[in-house]
Amino acid sequence: MKLSIIIPVFNEKNTISKILDKVKSINLNQVITKEIIIVDDCSTDGTKEFLKELEIKENKHLKINYSNNNEGKGASIRKGLLKVTGDIVLIQDADLEYDPNDYNKLLHPILNNEADVVYGSRFAGAGSTRVLFFWHRIANGLLTLLSNMKSNLNLTDMECGYKVFKTSAIKSVNLKENRFGFEPEVTIKLAKKGFIFYEVGISYHGRNYDQGKKIGIKDAFSALYCILRY
Q1: pTM for the complete prediction?
Q2: What is the domain count for the chain?
Q3: Tens of pLDDT along 83-118?
């Protein structure tokens, strides 16, 4: 059994080294091996240069893709999926908002043959959560509600960055969205195919915009469009 960890990266020079250390050091209970696939989305802050130096040192342990243009998280995930050789795919953001110490409980429903897809939830309890923006929480709740209405699921946190898939499931859908529209698109398309979803409470150490948070109001409207489209 192999876990493929896709890490989309854009301008994360202050966190990429730390998150890679956490991912590489995490002890997985049942998965035999893991591969790390990094997709740099045309970073301009020194992240790309750091990754190229790292690639020379650890070329046997990392797969790194460099995009020529900034296309977005969804596009980066699609590129990462082309390099996947594992049985399970996990999406890991390049910042420090999500803790790899949650991997084992995220993987458990799939490894226990209960689920095809597992989403983390920042609102289901079981982990410490940084208190941040009221209106982000409202927008997230509304988007999750509308997504649930379209997909007939009862998720609490459709937009959560921690998503885990059986490789056969994620590769069975034709993904198109380039930016954060990936979240509702993949949710609705997998739900339509009848895959079994589980949700697991995770810890969340959110960032504010001064710390590099990128998602904004335009992405909320894009997510709404994707929910209606798909």
Answers
A1: 0.88
A2: 1
A3: 999 999 999 999 999 999 999 999 999 999 999 999
